[in-house]
Amino acid sequence: MKQKLLSELVVYARTFEPYADNALKTADVGGGMGPFRDAAHRIEAILRAHHVPHLETNIFKLRRHEKDFLLRGDEAYVTMLVEMARTIRSQIAASPLSETDKALLAGLLLDYQQGFLLLVAQRASIMTLTRKVDAAARQIAPLITANVDQANQMMAARVEAIAESSRASVHLGLIAMYGALAFALIFVITLTTRIVRKVRQMAGLLDDLAYGAPTARVLAVPGGRDEINAMAESLNALLEHRANFLDCWKTSMNEMIAQRELEHAHSAAARDEMITELRAATIAKVQQLNAIRGRLLHHAEHIVEIHQRLRSAPGDVTTDDVQSLEHAAQGMVTLLEILTVDHGTHPESAPGAADQIVSA
């Protein structure tokens, strides 16, 4: 069409110039007839064959209904858009366009309408899922609060029991120290220094355990036979279990908060930021689970070692072996309880969050 228009314009210009010169010289317009007029008629015919009246205006109205729906969410704009698409389709069918151009425009209009209706359906699905997630969050929040309160009560009870046991052990240790002073003064002084140092360290850790979050540990010899060493091992085990529980709880809370913020993100930048935070929380959870797995393996290996030693020497069961087995079993039970409590704090939408992280 462009080539035809350019060709006719060349004919028009080439034939109109001689006609204009003759009309100016002789004052005879000759009825305005000539090849230029025929070229003008052909140009008009080409333009009419490719023009659909009011089509551009109706397309603007179609886009306006689309934007009104996106801004306001009113279903009435969907009906208005479908009606406008039907009007445009009728305009195209009644236009003087070629059948090829009509088919192309009708196909584009159909793709646009189907894509818009798909967007409407997806928006309705997202709103339904959002309401379900909000309802699930409202049900989970009281459970999390109850678990936290129960955990605090259990921790307070354990701290009190350890404190009582530590005070009794310290008192017995002091009595034994004074009784042994008459037999070996130098030996008792050395032993007292070691005992007091550990007792003070344990007392400080117990104080931190009651009012803070201790990070230090009491030096203990694995397999030691004295009560202070046993107290140190028990206190270290308590601190480890408390730290594991608090870390798992904090990570679960961070993961839940990041998941909720991701569901309510209204922009791509905010969504990317929430996905990054959720990925970090998930990685931290995996690292904690790997650490707990390592401790469980350590306890299991210790149990297997004692079992093999007892098989090699049947009947030679000592109190230390029994105590070691008991401590290993209790440690495994505590770690499994931590995993059970941690699993209970996850929101029901955690699988969806994992899928979003994998997709990101």
Keywords for this entry:
single chain, 360 residues, mainly alpha, 2 domains, 10 helices, 0% strand, disordered C terminus
- Counted up, domains total 2
Helix run count: 10
* Contiguous runs where pLDDT drops below 50 for at least 5 residues: 345-360
Strand percent estimate:
under 5%
Average of pLDDT: 79
Fraction of helical residues: over 70%
**Any idea what the shape is?**
rod-shaped
Could you tell me the number of beta strands? 0
Specify Rg, calculated over alpha carbons. Answer: 43 Å
Q: Determine the N-to-C terminus distance.
A: 48 Å
| SSE string | HHHHHHHHHH
Brief overview, please?
By secondary structure, the protein is mainly α. 84% of the residues lie in helices and 0% in strands. The chain is rod-shaped and about 150 Å long.
Question: Can you put this structure into words, describing what you see?
Answer:
This protein has 2 domains: 2-121, no CATH class; 122-359. 84% of the residues lie in helices and 0% in strands. The longest helix is centred in the middle third of the chain and has 82 residues, at 99-180. With 360 residues, it is mostly helical. Mean pLDDT is 79; it is low at 345-360. Helix 3 (55-72) runs antiparallel to helix 4, helix 6 (185-211) packs parallel to helix 7 (227-263) and helix 8 packs across helix 10.
Break the fold down into its secondary structure elements and pairings:
Blueprint: H1 2-26, H2 35-49, H3 55-72, H4 76-94, H5 99-180, H6 185-211, H7 227-263, H8 268-312, H9 319-344, H10 350-359
Helix pairs in contact: 1-2, 3-4, 4-5, 5-6, 5-7, 6-7, 7-8, 7-9, 8-9, 8-10
